[in-house]
Amino acid sequence: RDMAERGHSLESIKASIEARKPDFDAYI
């Protein structure tokens, strides 16, 4: 179960990064 939740979190983070790529670029 932990792994499944982690995977879901990762996907959510990926979506968030794609949604605000400018922020991500600025962060890097």
Helices and strands in order:
Elements: H1 2-19, H2 21-27
Walk me through what this model shows.
With 28 residues, the protein is mainly α. It has one domain (1-28). The protein is 89% helix and 0% strand. The chain has two helices and no strands. It has helices spanning 2-19, 21-27. It is elongated. The model has no long low-confidence stretch (mean pLDDT 71). GO terms for molecular function: ATP binding; kinase activity. This is Phosphoribulokinase/uridine kinase domain-containing protein. Residues 1-28 form the Phosphoribulokinase/uridine kinase domain.
Strand coverage percent: under 5%
**Basic shape:** elongated
Give the helices and strands as they follow along the chain.
HH
Structural class: mainly alpha
- Poorly predicted spans: none
Count helical runs: 2
Q: End-to-end span in angstroms? A: 31 Å
Q: Largest sheet, if any?
A: none
Mean pLDDT: 71
Protein name: Phosphoribulokinase/uridine kinase domain-containing protein
Organism: Nymphaea colorata (pocket water lily)
GO molecular function, one term: ATP binding
Pfam families: PRK
